[in-house]
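User: Hello! My lab partner asked me to get a predicted holo structure for this protein. The small molecule is 2-acetamido-2-deoxy-beta-D-glucopyranose, SMILES included with the sequence. Please write out the structure tokens.
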Amino acid sequence: MLPSAALFTMMLSCFCLHHPVGGQDCASRQEIQVSLKQVQKLLSAHETSYLQTLRNLNKKINLMQSSATKLPDRATNSTCPKLEAPANGKKLGRSQSVGHEVHFLCHAGYELVGSESRVCQESLTWSGQQTSCRDINECASSPCLNGGTCVDEVSQFSCVCGKGWSGPTCQTPLPTVFITMTNMSDAAAAGSHVRPSRCTITQRATHCTCEPGYTISGRDSSVCTDIDECKLFHNGQAGRLCLHACVNTPGGYRCSCPAGYNLSRDGRGCKDIDECATRQNNCTKDQMCVNTHGGFQCLRVDCPKIPHATYVKTSLIRCERNPCPVDNRACSQAPNSFSYHYLAVVSNLSAPRVMFTVSALRLIGDTLRFSLLGGQQARRHFTVQRSDRVTGELMLVRPVQGPATLEAEVEMTELERRGQLGRYITKVTMFVSQYDF
Ligand SMILES: *[C@@H]1O[C@H](CO)[C@@H](O)[C@H](O)[C@H]1NC(C)=O
Ligand SMILES: *[C@@H]1O[C@H](CO)[C@@H](O)[C@H](O)[C@H]1NC(C)=O
Ligand SMILES: *[C@@H]1O[C@H](CO)[C@@H](O)[C@H](O)[C@H]1NC(C)=O
Ligand SMILES: *[C@@H]1O[C@H](CO)[C@@H](O)[C@H](O)[C@H]1NC(C)=O
Ligand SMILES: *[C@@H]1O[C@H](CO)[C@@H](O)[C@H](O)[C@H]1NC(C)=O
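Assistant: Hello! Below are the structure tokens for the protein in complex with 2-acetamido-2-deoxy-beta-D-glucopyranose.
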């Protein structure tokens, strides 16, 4: 508006400057004054309206400013604080806006404490009290009889019965065998094989269980009977429960081993005790201690007494012939040496197998001959065979059932052009144990 007013004034002054002379051609002074007054009026009207508009604008801006500072408070706080679901329960409804409602439910076995429903109020707080879920105490009604102790669990309970009582609510007297047993060691001594069961009672059912090693047998669910693992797993597919003997115990079992053996670390096998290494033997100083499976032997080597020759002990297990008088043929034909060896083996050892080898250190003649001496018994169980030029083997030909002691003699003969240069006897004694472990 202002620019157009200025233009108007300028046009007016131009008009008068370009036509300064000849008053007749130019408008009269009166006419000009009237025109100017009209323009003045117009200008002041414009000024008033302009100022008014400015004031209105200012007012509007102020209003907007003040409302802008107040608005956010109202906008963010139109909801109530968030409510969490109670432990062991749940919340229904998510809205936190004013006027909305949330509801609470508790899981089975719990009861609701506080408000079931809460409303978001104008004050932006929730109505009612805080909600929680409390475990229902099934023991409140003292359901266990005869001095039983009630154990409250979630939506169920169980009874720990006093002496002599059994059953879900301790309503059943126990068989007399049990009553006489006052504690576990007494029970074990009496060969206890009954125990009370432990029952859990819910609204729908009663479920009784036993301690490990016991089971409910028959109709009476209040009594647990010991499981005889030894009988149950006798010849089980997974192998024998115990290598030797199984002993049933209240609630379990244990393995046992015969004398001379210790239970192995796995609890089911048997391990031979080495009495010779542990001084659990009574062998004297001049005796050798030979450990066998399940026992030991105290042995002393005495050199043989045979006609025409005498022997001297050269070690604990060896005797050598004393030099023969010249031309004493009987003496020179007697064995040059006797050596003694002891083997400990388990019963029913698989056969055939090499039990012992006899070897010459050096060969003086041109041949060595190996043969088995000894009676019928030796021949029943053994043979002797050559494995190379200087070695003979004593073979077990069939399994032996222990306990048994077998003896065999291996003769090694040194020959030259069929003449005998020397004979050497090796005596082998085999101690076969009673058990095959
Ligand atoms: C508005 O809400 C904020 C956080 O949400 C809170 O700190 C403030 O106190 C509330 N104001 C009122 C008036 O409730
Ligand atoms: C259990 O019995 C054993 C042997 O009879 C006895 O020594 C022990 O004191 C008893 N224990 C209890 C708790 O009665
Ligand atoms: C065998 O067992 C007994 C008792 O368990 C123990 O005293 C002994 O030292 C054991 N012997 C061997 C050789 O392990
Ligand atoms: C060792 O003791 C056993 C009995 O424990 C006995 O039969 C045996 O004769 C004894 N042996 C020796 C050499 O004393
Ligand atoms: C001896 O061993 C064989 C084969 O291992 C077995 O079949 C047999 O039953 C065993 N005999 C005895 C008496 O243990």
